[in-house]
Design a protein that fits this description.
The protein has 178 residues and is mostly helical. It is 57% helix and 4% strand. Strands 1-2 form a two-stranded antiparallel ribbon. Helix 1 packs antiparallel against helix 4 and helix 2 runs parallel beside helix 4. The radius of gyration is 18 Å and the shape is flat. It starts with a helix and ends in a 5-residue tail after the last helix.
Length: 178
């Protein structure tokens, strides 16, 4: 059985891995492409950034262990309207949301793992709330990567994970014979 500190550290490390993947994908598209959905009715990278930042600030802002994670100050619907922010402002919003989340994770104590919190007036164990947040971040990271890959095109895309056809080569770098 792992101790609470190991669990908390694993949450932080997994969140940071998602953040790095999304940022690596965003770096591969132009400023204008950040605002370009792949098709009508789909979200752009900018909209997903706005949404994740708003979600993190609402769920993990000050007092998050005591107050409902869907704060009355959050306007979720406006997160899905592209505000056409320039890249630097969009990334500042992104960084502020992630900093809010990571600061909340960093402040957790082992005894907090037995706590319950509310999200939209539903009771969650802290581990369930963290699993929910990790799944949400990973879902949107995948969307950001898919959109960026589609916009960058197959010739311009730099793989951040194991590229297709590259499994054997990758496994060898990990010391595996297959």
């Amino acid at each position: 059985m792992h101790d609470a500190a190991t669990i908390i550290r694993s949450w932080r490390d997994t969140f940071l891995a998602q953040k790095r993947l999304a940022e690596g994908a965003m770096a591969q598209v132009s400023d204008e492409q950040l605002h370009s959905p792949l098709a009508a009715g789909l979200n752009s990278i900018a909209v997903i950034v706005q949404h994740l930042a708003g979600n993190f600030e609402s769920r993990f802002g000050s007092g998050w262990l005591e107050v409902d994670g869907e704060r009355p100050t959050r306007d979720r619907d406006t997160e899905f309207a592209d505000r056409r922010l320039p890249r630097d402002q969009l990334m500042a919003l992104w960084d502020r949301g992630w900093q809010t989340l990571l600061s909340a994770v960093d402040a957790l104590r082992p005894e907090d793992l037995s706590r319950t919190i509310h999200i939209r007036n539903e009771l969650h164990t802290l581990p369930l709330a963290m699993a929910r947040a990790l799944a949400h971040a990973a879902y949107h990271t995948g969307q950001i990567m898919q959109i960026a890959r589609g916009l960058a095109g197959s010739e311009g895309w730099r793989w951040q994970t194991v590229r297709p056809g590259g499994t054997r080569e990758f496994n060898r770098t990990k010391g595996l014979p297959y």
